[in-house]
Fold:
Amino acid sequence: MLEFDVSTLNATTMKSKKEPRKMSRAGDFELDESFVSPKLTDNERFESIEVFKSYRRKIVSKRSHDDKLKIQLMQLKFLMEDYVGTDKYDESLNFAYFLRQYIERLGKKNIEFAQEINIKPTELSQLVNHHRDPNHKIIMRLEAHSNKIFPAILWFKLFTKEKALELLKDDNLRKTESGRVKKRLQFSF
Amino acid sequence: MFVQIDGWSVTIRDLTNNRDIEAKIGKLTKSDFRSIKQEKRFEFDWDAFSQQEVYKLGLIDANEILGLICVEDRSDPGFDCLEIIAIETRKDQRGHLKTYDRIAGCLFAFAARLAFKNGHEGMIFLIAKTKTSTIFNSKYGFDYLGNINTLCTRMASSDKNSQQLIRDYL
Structure:
Protein backbone atom coordinates (compact mmCIF):
# COMPACT_ATOMS: atom_id res chain seq x y z
CA MET A 1 0.00 0.00 0.00
CA LEU A 2 1.32 3.40 -0.90
CA GLU A 3 1.67 5.92 1.87
CA PHE A 4 1.66 9.35 0.40
CA ASP A 5 0.51 12.65 1.69
CA VAL A 6 -2.19 14.10 -0.50
CA SER A 7 -2.67 17.53 0.98
CA THR A 8 -1.82 20.51 -1.10
CA LEU A 9 0.83 23.10 -0.52
CA ASN A 10 1.38 26.58 -1.68
CA ALA A 11 4.87 26.25 -3.05
CA THR A 12 5.27 29.92 -3.87
CA THR A 13 8.84 30.94 -3.24
CA MET A 14 8.65 34.01 -1.06
CA LYS A 15 11.36 36.62 -1.13
CA SER A 16 13.96 35.43 1.28
CA LYS A 17 17.56 36.05 2.19
CA LYS A 18 18.71 33.21 -0.01
CA GLU A 19 16.35 32.78 -2.91
CA PRO A 20 16.28 29.25 -4.30
CA ARG A 21 17.72 29.16 -7.77
CA LYS A 22 14.64 27.86 -9.48
CA MET A 23 11.28 29.47 -9.10
CA SER A 24 8.34 27.16 -8.83
CA ARG A 25 6.36 26.63 -11.95
CA ALA A 26 2.69 27.54 -11.91
CA GLY A 27 1.73 23.89 -11.50
CA ASP A 28 3.71 23.58 -8.29
CA PHE A 29 1.18 25.66 -6.40
CA GLU A 30 -0.89 22.57 -5.79
CA LEU A 31 2.02 20.29 -4.94
CA ASP A 32 3.16 19.08 -1.58
CA GLU A 33 6.76 18.41 -0.70
CA SER A 34 5.83 15.72 1.83
CA PHE A 35 6.15 12.07 0.92
CA VAL A 36 6.87 8.64 2.33
CA SER A 37 8.74 6.12 0.22
CA PRO A 38 6.33 3.42 -0.91
CA LYS A 39 6.95 -0.22 -0.13
CA LEU A 40 8.32 -1.74 -3.30
CA THR A 41 8.41 -5.32 -4.47
CA ASP A 42 11.85 -6.93 -4.56
CA ASN A 43 11.92 -6.55 -8.33
CA GLU A 44 10.93 -2.89 -8.21
CA ARG A 45 13.58 -2.22 -5.57
CA PHE A 46 16.25 -4.09 -7.53
CA GLU A 47 15.39 -2.22 -10.72
CA SER A 48 15.40 1.13 -8.89
CA ILE A 49 18.85 0.45 -7.47
CA GLU A 50 20.16 -0.53 -10.90
CA VAL A 51 18.74 2.64 -12.46
CA PHE A 52 20.35 4.75 -9.74
CA LYS A 53 23.69 2.94 -10.16
CA SER A 54 23.67 3.75 -13.86
CA TYR A 55 22.79 7.41 -13.12
CA ARG A 56 25.57 7.57 -10.57
CA ARG A 57 28.15 6.12 -12.97
CA LYS A 58 27.18 8.70 -15.56
CA ILE A 59 27.51 11.58 -13.08
CA VAL A 60 30.86 10.29 -11.78
CA SER A 61 32.26 9.84 -15.31
CA LYS A 62 31.59 13.50 -16.08
CA ARG A 63 33.34 14.87 -13.01
CA SER A 64 36.42 16.97 -13.53
CA HIS A 65 39.45 16.86 -11.24
CA ASP A 66 38.18 20.04 -9.57
CA ASP A 67 34.73 18.54 -9.07
CA LYS A 68 36.26 15.54 -7.28
CA LEU A 69 38.42 17.81 -5.15
CA LYS A 70 35.44 19.95 -4.21
CA ILE A 71 33.53 16.86 -3.06
CA GLN A 72 36.47 15.71 -0.95
CA LEU A 73 36.95 19.11 0.64
CA MET A 74 33.27 19.63 1.21
CA GLN A 75 33.09 16.39 3.16
CA LEU A 76 36.10 17.40 5.22
CA LYS A 77 34.66 20.82 5.98
CA PHE A 78 31.35 19.34 7.13
CA LEU A 79 33.14 16.83 9.34
CA MET A 80 35.13 19.65 10.90
CA GLU A 81 32.07 21.85 11.36
CA ASP A 82 30.13 19.06 13.02
CA TYR A 83 32.99 18.17 15.31
CA VAL A 84 33.47 21.74 16.55
CA GLY A 85 29.69 22.14 16.77
CA THR A 86 29.16 19.35 19.26
CA ASP A 87 29.95 19.03 22.95
CA LYS A 88 31.47 15.61 22.40
CA TYR A 89 35.22 15.12 22.34
CA ASP A 90 37.38 12.71 20.45
CA GLU A 91 41.11 12.77 21.06
CA SER A 92 41.91 11.54 17.57
CA LEU A 93 40.03 14.40 15.90
CA ASN A 94 42.62 17.04 16.61
CA PHE A 95 44.03 19.89 14.56
CA ALA A 96 46.84 17.68 13.25
CA TYR A 97 44.39 15.03 12.01
CA PHE A 98 42.30 17.53 10.04
CA LEU A 99 45.39 19.26 8.64
CA ARG A 100 46.69 15.87 7.43
CA GLN A 101 43.30 15.21 5.86
CA TYR A 102 43.33 18.59 4.13
CA ILE A 103 46.76 17.98 2.62
CA GLU A 104 45.96 14.37 1.64
CA ARG A 105 42.69 15.31 -0.03
CA LEU A 106 44.50 17.96 -2.04
CA GLY A 107 46.81 15.16 -3.19
CA LYS A 108 49.88 17.04 -2.08
CA LYS A 109 53.09 15.99 -0.42
CA ASN A 110 53.92 17.73 2.84
CA ILE A 111 56.95 19.44 1.35
CA GLU A 112 54.90 20.83 -1.51
CA PHE A 113 52.19 22.05 0.84
CA ALA A 114 54.76 23.66 3.15
CA GLN A 115 56.06 25.62 0.16
CA GLU A 116 52.57 26.71 -0.80
CA ILE A 117 51.80 28.15 2.63
CA ASN A 118 55.36 29.42 2.89
CA ILE A 119 56.51 27.65 6.05
CA LYS A 120 59.46 25.35 6.66
CA PRO A 121 58.81 21.64 6.00
CA THR A 122 59.96 20.86 9.55
CA GLU A 123 57.34 23.22 10.96
CA LEU A 124 54.63 21.55 8.89
CA SER A 125 55.90 18.13 9.91
CA GLN A 126 55.60 19.10 13.58
CA LEU A 127 52.09 20.40 13.01
CA VAL A 128 50.77 17.32 11.20
CA ASN A 129 52.43 15.01 13.73
CA HIS A 130 50.88 16.84 16.65
CA HIS A 131 54.25 17.97 18.00
CA ARG A 132 53.57 21.68 17.68
CA ASP A 133 50.55 23.90 18.28
CA PRO A 134 49.37 26.06 15.40
CA ASN A 135 49.66 29.79 15.93
CA HIS A 136 47.47 32.48 14.43
CA LYS A 137 49.88 32.89 11.52
CA ILE A 138 49.46 29.26 10.46
CA ILE A 139 45.71 29.38 10.88
CA MET A 140 45.46 32.52 8.73
CA ARG A 141 47.60 30.90 6.06
CA LEU A 142 45.33 27.86 6.00
CA GLU A 143 42.36 30.15 5.52
CA ALA A 144 44.11 31.95 2.66
CA HIS A 145 45.30 28.69 1.07
CA SER A 146 41.76 27.30 1.04
CA ASN A 147 40.42 30.51 -0.47
CA LYS A 148 38.41 30.93 2.75
CA ILE A 149 36.57 27.64 2.23
CA PHE A 150 38.13 26.61 5.53
CA PRO A 151 37.96 29.85 7.51
CA ALA A 152 40.51 30.64 10.18
CA ILE A 153 37.82 30.51 12.86
CA LEU A 154 37.05 26.88 11.97
CA TRP A 155 40.71 25.85 12.37
CA PHE A 156 40.90 27.92 15.54
CA LYS A 157 37.80 26.34 17.08
CA LEU A 158 39.21 22.93 16.26
CA PHE A 159 42.42 23.80 18.03
CA THR A 160 40.68 25.29 21.08
CA LYS A 161 38.55 22.16 21.34
CA GLU A 162 41.71 20.09 21.38
CA LYS A 163 43.08 22.28 24.17
CA ALA A 164 39.79 22.06 26.06
CA LEU A 165 40.03 18.29 25.96
CA GLU A 166 43.60 18.41 27.26
CA LEU A 167 42.41 20.58 30.12
CA LEU A 168 39.49 18.30 30.91
CA LYS A 169 41.73 15.27 31.05
CA ASP A 170 44.58 16.80 33.04
CA ASP A 171 43.72 15.40 36.47
CA ASN A 172 47.28 15.74 37.75
CA LEU A 173 47.39 19.46 37.08
CA ARG A 174 43.89 19.84 38.52
CA LYS A 175 44.94 18.14 41.72
CA THR A 176 48.21 20.04 42.01
CA GLU A 177 46.75 23.46 41.34
CA SER A 178 43.73 22.83 43.51
CA GLY A 179 46.11 22.17 46.37
CA ARG A 180 47.70 25.57 45.86
CA VAL A 181 44.44 27.51 46.16
CA LYS A 182 44.32 29.05 49.64
CA LYS A 183 40.69 30.03 49.85
CA ARG A 184 37.66 29.00 47.86
CA LEU A 185 33.91 29.56 47.71
CA GLN A 186 32.02 27.55 50.31
CA PHE A 187 29.05 26.81 48.10
CA SER A 188 28.42 25.34 44.69
CA PHE A 189 25.56 25.42 42.17
CA MET B 1 34.33 7.57 14.31
CA PHE B 2 32.80 10.99 13.76
CA VAL B 3 30.42 12.50 16.21
CA GLN B 4 26.90 13.53 15.40
CA ILE B 5 26.15 17.23 15.53
CA ASP B 6 23.71 18.37 18.20
CA GLY B 7 21.92 20.86 15.99
CA TRP B 8 22.38 22.75 12.76
CA SER B 9 21.17 26.35 12.37
CA VAL B 10 19.14 27.28 9.32
CA THR B 11 17.15 30.29 8.24
CA ILE B 12 13.44 30.04 7.52
CA ARG B 13 11.04 32.79 6.53
CA ASP B 14 8.35 34.05 8.90
CA LEU B 15 5.57 34.92 6.47
CA THR B 16 3.60 36.90 9.05
CA ASN B 17 6.20 39.66 9.02
CA ASN B 18 8.40 38.65 6.07
CA ARG B 19 11.45 38.28 8.28
CA ASP B 20 14.08 35.58 8.34
CA ILE B 21 14.30 33.69 11.59
CA GLU B 22 16.71 31.10 12.86
CA ALA B 23 15.59 27.51 13.18
CA LYS B 24 17.49 24.40 14.09
CA ILE B 25 17.75 20.94 12.59
CA GLY B 26 18.60 18.16 14.99
CA LYS B 27 17.99 14.51 15.69
CA LEU B 28 14.55 13.50 16.79
CA THR B 29 14.54 12.29 20.40
CA LYS B 30 12.34 9.66 22.01
CA SER B 31 10.26 12.35 23.69
CA ASP B 32 9.84 14.08 20.31
CA PHE B 33 8.39 10.87 18.88
CA ARG B 34 5.95 10.78 21.79
CA SER B 35 4.86 14.40 21.43
CA ILE B 36 4.47 14.07 17.65
CA LYS B 37 2.11 11.16 18.21
CA GLN B 38 0.14 12.94 20.93
CA GLU B 39 -0.16 16.32 19.24
CA LYS B 40 -1.24 14.88 15.87
CA ARG B 41 0.14 17.83 13.91
CA PHE B 42 1.82 15.55 11.37
CA GLU B 43 -0.01 13.13 9.10
CA PHE B 44 2.54 10.37 8.67
CA ASP B 45 3.02 7.69 11.28
CA TRP B 46 6.50 8.81 12.41
CA ASP B 47 6.56 6.09 15.04
CA ALA B 48 7.18 3.72 12.17
CA PHE B 49 10.58 5.42 11.72
CA SER B 50 11.59 5.37 15.38
CA GLN B 51 14.45 2.96 14.68
CA GLN B 52 15.75 5.06 11.79
CA GLU B 53 17.61 8.31 11.38
CA VAL B 54 15.02 11.07 11.73
CA TYR B 55 15.72 14.79 11.95
CA LYS B 56 13.43 17.64 12.96
CA LEU B 57 13.42 21.26 11.95
CA GLY B 58 12.18 23.39 14.80
CA LEU B 59 11.94 26.91 16.07
CA ILE B 60 14.62 27.65 18.63
CA ASP B 61 12.56 29.81 20.97
CA ALA B 62 9.18 28.13 20.75
CA ASN B 63 10.36 24.51 20.88
CA GLU B 64 8.00 23.71 18.01
CA ILE B 65 8.67 21.11 15.32
CA LEU B 66 7.79 22.34 11.84
CA GLY B 67 9.22 19.62 9.64
CA LEU B 68 10.63 16.10 9.73
CA ILE B 69 12.88 14.05 7.49
CA CYS B 70 13.94 10.41 7.62
CA VAL B 71 17.10 9.41 5.79
CA GLU B 72 19.13 6.25 5.37
CA ASP B 73 22.75 5.74 4.36
CA ARG B 74 23.10 3.37 1.41
CA SER B 75 26.53 1.97 0.93
CA ASP B 76 25.99 -1.08 -1.28
CA PRO B 77 28.48 -1.13 -4.14
CA GLY B 78 27.25 1.35 -6.73
CA PHE B 79 24.20 2.27 -4.68
CA ASP B 80 26.22 4.74 -2.71
CA CYS B 81 23.90 7.53 -1.62
CA LEU B 82 21.73 9.00 1.06
CA GLU B 83 18.15 7.89 0.54
CA ILE B 84 15.34 10.15 1.72
CA ILE B 85 12.74 7.78 3.10
CA ALA B 86 10.21 10.39 4.19
CA ILE B 87 9.84 14.13 4.54
CA GLU B 88 6.92 16.05 5.95
CA THR B 89 6.08 19.63 6.74
CA ARG B 90 3.62 20.11 9.59
CA LYS B 91 -0.03 20.12 8.50
CA ASP B 92 -0.57 23.79 9.32
CA GLN B 93 2.57 24.75 7.40
CA ARG B 94 1.20 23.76 4.02
CA GLY B 95 -0.93 25.66 1.56
CA HIS B 96 -2.02 29.25 1.78
CA LEU B 97 -2.27 29.34 5.56
CA LYS B 98 1.30 28.43 6.27
CA THR B 99 3.23 30.89 8.39
CA TYR B 100 6.78 29.73 7.61
CA ASP B 101 8.52 29.17 4.30
CA ARG B 102 11.66 27.19 3.35
CA ILE B 103 10.98 24.31 5.77
CA ALA B 104 11.26 21.54 3.18
CA GLY B 105 14.10 23.30 1.37
CA CYS B 106 16.16 23.46 4.55
CA LEU B 107 15.49 19.77 5.24
CA PHE B 108 16.52 18.80 1.69
CA ALA B 109 19.66 20.90 2.00
CA PHE B 110 20.44 19.28 5.34
CA ALA B 111 20.08 15.89 3.64
CA ALA B 112 22.42 17.11 0.90
CA ARG B 113 24.96 18.11 3.52
CA LEU B 114 24.68 14.67 5.12
CA ALA B 115 25.14 13.11 1.69
CA PHE B 116 28.54 14.81 1.48
CA LYS B 117 29.51 14.39 5.10
CA ASN B 118 28.68 10.69 5.18
CA GLY B 119 30.85 10.03 2.15
CA HIS B 120 28.21 9.63 -0.56
CA GLU B 121 29.68 12.43 -2.66
CA GLY B 122 26.46 14.41 -2.30
CA MET B 123 24.30 11.84 -4.08
CA ILE B 124 20.69 11.56 -2.90
CA PHE B 125 18.01 9.10 -3.98
CA LEU B 126 14.29 9.21 -3.32
CA ILE B 127 11.07 7.71 -4.56
CA ALA B 128 8.36 10.34 -4.89
CA LYS B 129 4.75 10.29 -5.83
CA THR B 130 4.57 10.80 -9.61
CA LYS B 131 1.73 13.28 -9.20
CA THR B 132 3.80 15.63 -7.08
CA SER B 133 7.27 14.86 -8.42
CA THR B 134 7.50 18.03 -10.50
CA ILE B 135 8.14 20.11 -7.39
CA PHE B 136 11.25 18.09 -6.56
CA ASN B 137 12.55 18.75 -10.04
CA SER B 138 11.54 22.38 -10.54
CA LYS B 139 12.12 23.69 -7.06
CA TYR B 140 14.87 21.46 -5.71
CA GLY B 141 16.63 20.33 -8.88
CA PHE B 142 16.21 16.56 -8.47
CA ASP B 143 16.64 14.56 -11.70
CA TYR B 144 13.99 12.15 -12.91
CA LEU B 145 15.13 8.53 -13.07
CA GLY B 146 11.92 7.13 -14.50
CA ASN B 147 8.66 5.84 -13.13
CA ILE B 148 8.40 2.65 -11.12
CA ASN B 149 4.71 2.42 -11.87
CA THR B 150 2.00 4.96 -12.54
CA LEU B 151 2.16 6.22 -8.97
CA CYS B 152 5.86 6.32 -8.10
CA THR B 153 8.83 8.08 -9.63
CA ARG B 154 12.53 7.61 -8.93
CA MET B 155 14.49 10.82 -8.44
CA ALA B 156 18.06 11.74 -7.57
CA SER B 157 20.16 14.72 -6.66
CA SER B 158 23.63 14.86 -8.16
CA ASP B 159 26.61 16.26 -6.27
CA LYS B 160 26.26 19.56 -8.13
CA ASN B 161 22.58 19.87 -7.33
CA SER B 162 23.22 18.98 -3.70
CA GLN B 163 25.86 21.72 -3.55
CA GLN B 164 23.28 24.13 -4.92
CA LEU B 165 20.72 23.07 -2.31
CA ILE B 166 23.28 23.75 0.39
CA ARG B 167 24.05 27.17 -1.07
CA ASP B 168 20.36 28.04 -1.36
CA TYR B 169 19.17 26.88 2.03
CA LEU B 170 21.99 26.40 4.54
Q: What stands out?
A: Chain A touches chain B through 62 residues (CB under 8 Å). The beta strands of chain A are 35-36. The helical segments of chain A are 42-61, 65-84, 95-106, 110-116, 121-128, 136-145, 152-169, 171-180.
